[in-house]
Design goal:
- This protein is mainly alpha-helical.
- Helices cover 88% and strands 0% of the residues.
- The protein contains three helices and no strands.
- The protein has helices at 5-19, 21-29, 42-154.
- The termini are far apart.
Length: 155
């Protein structure tokens, strides 16, 4: 026989007639709200607990495996990135070293050319001074003589 709401209401009415309102309510409160086939037993709860524990363990194992795989993947990517950065730094050092060497060579060439130009200019200045010194000495002597002569005339 299936127990439904109508059957439960009929039982409560009859119990009220026989026992009274309070006793009927108390007795009905102790009856399960569903059929006995739907009431959980200790065995069914234990069986469900075992199934859930097995599923949780399987899930934990899957999560652990995925975390391990993820960790290995991330470590591999970090290793690759580290190698790439190291290679780029090495290339940058080589490029900078080449540019510094080229700059040093250019600078040495400019300094050598400047030294050569200064040496030539100074040599030309010395030669000019050697050529013009006798003329200057004669000019100074002539001016001195003229000044002395003029000084004698004026006095």
């Amino acid at each position: 026989m299936t127990v439904d709401d109508r059957t439960r209401m009929e039982l409560h009415r009859r119990l009220t007639e026989v026992l009274g309102d309070q006793e009927a309510d108390t007795l009905m409160a102790h009856l399960p709200p569903v059929t006995w086939q739907n009431v959980a037993t200790t065995d069914s709860v234990d069986s469900t607990r075992v199934v859930l524990a097995t599923q949780i363990d399987a899930l934990r194992s899957d999560v652990d495996r995925h975390v391990t795989e993820l960790r290995a993947d991330v470590e591999g990517q970090i290793t690759e990135l580290r190698a790439d950065v190291h290679g780029q730094i090495t290339q940058l050092r080589a490029d900078l070293g080449g540019q510094i060497t080229e700059l040093r060579s250019d600078l040495n060439g400019y300094v050598t050319a400047l030294n050569s130009a200064l040496s030539t200019g100074l040599a030309d200045l010395r030669a000019e001074m050697h050529r013009t010194t006798p003329s200057i000495v004669m000019l100074v002597a002539a001016l001195t003589t003229a000044a002395v002569t003029l000084g004698g005339i004026l006095t």
